[in-house]
Amino acid sequence: MDFSQRRRVDFNASLTPATRTTAKAATPARALHKPRHAGFFQAVHRFDARLDPGERAALARWIQEQYTGELGDFPLGLVAKCHLGPPYVDHRLDLMHSILEHYSPADVMPEPFARARMQIRVGDFAYAEVYASGKVCFVRADGSVDA
To answer: What is the pTM of this model?
Structure first.
């Protein structure tokens, strides 16, 4: 058979334009590599401030909305270095339950957040995003992402 006579098959032809957009958004792998904007860094720095439960919930909602709008998905939570000083070295924000916890070196961080902890302490990263899939993305101070 001559290649010029082969029929071209477009697997997306059966999808409506709205469905095509949804299908692309369902695979955020490429989106996870997008640089993060300054608003994310400002939100992470607020972890070091004393936040009442209402402020913490509002911050978690804002972060979820930003991630959903930018990437089409949002992480379970974030892990970052803590700047409160001893005995704290790092902290996590669980976006699902609006839980912010600060950890000393001897404290045990729950999974799946614990996987990001050592890289945050020793790496050149501003924070880590921990996803339900088990994926951890490390965000550098310039906004670039190691996924």
So the answer is: 0.77
